[in-house]
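User: Structure with manganese (II) ion, tokens only please.
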Amino acid sequence: MVVVMKPDATRADVEAIVEKVEAAGGQAFVSRGVHRVIIGLVGDIEEYAALNLQAMAGVSRVTQISSGFKLVSREQHQERSVVQVGSVSIGPDTVTLIAGPCAVETPEQTMESARMAQRAGAKLLRGGAFKPRTSPYAFQGLGRRGLEILADVRAETGLPIVTEVVGAQDVTMVAEYADVLQVGTRNMQNFPLLQAVGTAGKPVLLKRGMNATIEEWLMAAEYIAKCGNLDIILCERGIRTFETATRNTLDISAVPVVQRLSHLPVIVDPSHSGGRRDLVLPLTRAAIVAGADGVIVDVHPRPEEALCDGPQALVAEDLHQLGRAIEDLTAYMGRTTVDRWHRRAG
Ligand code: PEP
Ligand code: MN
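Assistant:
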């Protein structure tokens, strides 16, 4: 059962519902989004019916749902959500470019990548300090030193940081530096990690597991939402199929399918899905026209020296074309690449 609060519901209205549910022996999970609060109820549905929550102050509606995801479901929340990262709004009116190196390697490489990203129109900087590598012998990332480099580059460029956290034990430390916590494909069903990022007080970028169905992906998002955090950006990054020409197969259908099932923003990673530089532009075009709320791409000043994923990194010459395509197709879709703060200022 889910209680959707009115946009003007007060904290006291929410608390009154939680108290009533708990007094009846049930559990209430409060999730706060930018526009409204949703309360997921676990317990005896018949008991809840008797509580007549519908009549309480601040309640928009109470609905019974039985699927494995409720708080992230669009059934209860028709309006598509906006996730706010500083002045950057990620949601249905915008197309947000997130760009940066796959891995933070050196201060210079990170700064050069950030400048490349910014010139292409990126609003957020990506870069991994903790890398979940398939081989234990591959570069695992610089750890805390990498986070410090990212923070320095943010101070210099003003770009908020998206960075991956690989283990639940590191969430508090990564959250001290990150503006958005990334959960990678290999960790989509790492439930302790999902719960840890759900309480870290930062927006989360949740990548789809390469072997996960859309329903499993949304249930993973539900773990985060159930901990009180509705600031979740979903990222389609390709799934495993029989095809070997690409690293993974970008499931472009996932964009409209998920947007119908969930109110959360959905972005696409054309770099990790294709795994090839030459595919990033066409897959970006496809993503935007399919309705994606943004794209996250790898860039590197010298991909031949990259410690991770060089073959898919865009170089300076590619970025001009990518930036142009994003601008043109964003306008074609009736959206904007300009964030709220700039719109107000302009
Ligand atoms: C990444 O974005 O750096 C990454 C490791 O991606 P994925 O989890 O999609 O493989
Ligand atoms: Mn990578």
